[in-house]
Specification:
- By secondary structure, the chain is an alpha+beta fold.
- It folds into two domains: 2-113, Phosphorylase Kinase, domain 1, CATH 3.30.200.20; 129-320, Alpha-Beta Complex (Aminoglycoside 3'-phosphotransferase, Chain: A, domain 2).
- 45% of the residues lie in helices and 16% in strands.
- It has nine helices and nine strands.
- It has helices at residues 2-11, 65-84, 129-145, 167-172, 177-190, 230-240, 243-261, 267-295, 304-320, and strands at 18-26, 32-39, 44-50, 98-104, 107-113, 196-198, 207-209, 216-218, 225-227.
- It has a five-stranded antiparallel β-sheet, sandwiched between helices.
- Strand 7 and strand 8 form a beta hairpin.
- Helix 8 (267-295) packs across helix 9.
């Protein structure tokens, strides 16, 4: 297999010969690897190799056939994204260019631009206010470009914690008002007038930063699909801010987000979208809380801020009913 992959990669480039140089990381639960390949001329590319594991080994014990099928589908969705959607993005939504793709004996190969060489070499867990704003604007630009798009070939509803694809985790939840209201919360998010294409896994680890902090690019599009943009926004916040920081920065982040996305809308639609999605902000948090309480009920992201928002949503739903 390694020789077949090397032959394919080198068939993409004239007068270049690439070899694997650095193992970057293994894919979640043993589904392959991401590696850097370098040429004798000093160029480099990224190769994402997806293969079925001989043994499913999820770090939290979620090793079912349902999870396996979801994971395989996620890589097919990512391939579709790169083949049919990436060309629609503008310069404000930087992602790695697809240089080639193939399947060899049922294993998928994506050959991608090396963002390190293209000016995005920084990976962070703790990020500055400027970097937070850069990521928020990136998300707003993604969402703005795909308002009301059909998202054909992607997930019907984006984000890796979407309720209908996480029934095992849902069943594991303790009985509670949140569990009883989960379908209604999901319905309200999916029933928004304004829908877009979500990144689906917009954690800070999936953003690559320039050295001057002013520019950002994103990677990892396995859970890209239709949805309310607030799902991406709150998930990004959860990945780099604790509860007290989320509370402190909430208004500021929302202002940055809506100022950017409104560039893609008429003045009347901008007003309507912002009104609708500001209401959905708290529903997105409650939806994510639902997932966490089934998947990892002791998770650090279940904090006072998230719990307080969830209580407010549940109280609102009582009145709605």
């Amino acid at each position: 297999m390694s020789n077949q992959i090397k032959s394919f990669i080198n068939s993409l480039f004239i007068n270049e010969s690439y070899s694997k140089s650095i193992h970057i990381q293994s894919l979640w639960s043993g589904y392959g690897s991401i590696d850097k390949w370098s040429s004798i001329n000093g160029d480099s590319i990224i190769v994402k190799h997806i293969k079925l594991p001989t043994r499913i080994d999820h770090p939290n014990g979620w090793n079912s056939d349902v999870g396996h099928k979801r994971k395989i589908q996620s890589y097919k969705v990512e391939q579709e994204w790169y083949l049919k959607y990436v060309h629609l993005l503008n310069e404000n939504c930087r992602i790695p260019k697809l240089l080639g793709e193939t399947e060899i004996d049922g294993e998928m190969i994506l050959v991608l631009e090396d963002l390190d060489r293209s000016g995005y070499p920084i990976r962070l867990t703790n990020i500055s206010e400027l970097q937070i704003h850069s990521c928020v604007r990136w998300l707003a630009n993604l969402h703005g470009q795909f308002i009301s798009h059909k998202a054909t070939g992607l997930w019907d509803f984006g984000s890796y914690w979407y309720l209908m694809t996480r029934q095992e985790e849902f069943e594991k939840m303790e009985d509670s008002q949140l569990k009883a209201s989960a379908k209604l919360i999901d319905f309200k998010l999916n029933d928004c007038k304004f829908q877009t294409i979500l990144h689906g896994d917009a954690k800070v680890a999936n953003f690559c930063f320039s050295k001057d902090e002013a520019k950002v690019a994103a990677v990892d599009f396995q859970y890209v699909g239709k949805g309310c943009g607030m799902k991406d926004l709150i998930y990004f916040m959860s990945s780099c801010l604790d509860g007290s920081e989320c509370e402190k920065k909430e208004s500021e982040i929302l202002e940055v987000y809506f100022k950017e996305i409104n560039n893609y809308l008429s003045s009347s639609d901008a007003i309507l979208l912002e009104r609708e999605w500001r209401l959905m902000y708290k529903y997105a948090w409650a939806d994510f809380n639902r997932f966490l309480k089934g998947w990892s009920p002791g998770h650090w992201k279940i904090n006072d801020y998230v719990e307080g928002i969830t209580v407010a949503v549940l109280d609102e739903l009582k009145e709605w009913n």
